[in-house]
Design a protein that fits this description.
With about 140 residues, this protein is of the alpha+beta class. It folds into two domains: about 1-100, no CATH class; about 100-139, no CATH class. It has four helices and four strands. The strands form two sheets. A two-stranded antiparallel ribbon has the order 1-2. A two-stranded antiparallel ribbon has the order 3-4. It is elongated.
């Protein structure tokens, strides 16, 4: 039996634009505008109250944004100058899987149970129908 598995994952880069973050940092960085932009409100308030950590934090953030190491509130790096597309990436995996043989009353390890040939659920020996799927049990 062939099984195909499709997994959708989000890209591992930030959706925010590196150019916008750089320009906000350059012109309004001492007020923390670039930090508010990427969702880091806590440090944005800190920058607002301390004039960009006394201009030292503002200058360090400029360098970090230019180097491409600045991250958003989720820890994803701002690497794209025009922003990242948020389209998910699809990964398709196909593999072979062996079909499992359903257990029957002859292969049952417990004497007082019957196994459903459709779903494999154990039923009492005197049952005619499966308690899970309702199919007829073998006699």
């Amino acid at each position: 039996m062939t099984v195909t598995q499709v997994v959708y994952t989000q890209p591992r880069v930030s959706q925010y634009s590196r150019m916008v973050a750089f320009l906000l940092c350059l012109f309004l960085g001492v007020f923390g505008a670039h930090r508010f932009y990427v969702g880091k409100a806590g440090s944005g308030v800190l920058y607002l109250c301390t004039y960009g950590l006394f201009y030292i934090g503002w200058f360090i953030d400029l360098i970090i944004i230019l180097a491409g190491s600045f991250t958003d509130n989720f820890g994803l790096p701002l690497t794209e100058w025009s922003g990242s597309s948020t389209q998910p990436v699809a990964t398709v995996t196909t593999y072979q899987q062996q079909a499992q043989q359903p257990m029957t009353s002859q292969t049952s390890a417990i004497k007082n149970t019957k196994y459903c040939p459709n779903c494999g659920i154990a039923n009492e020996m005197g049952s005619t129908y499966c308690s899970s799927c309702g199919s007829i049990l073998e006699l």
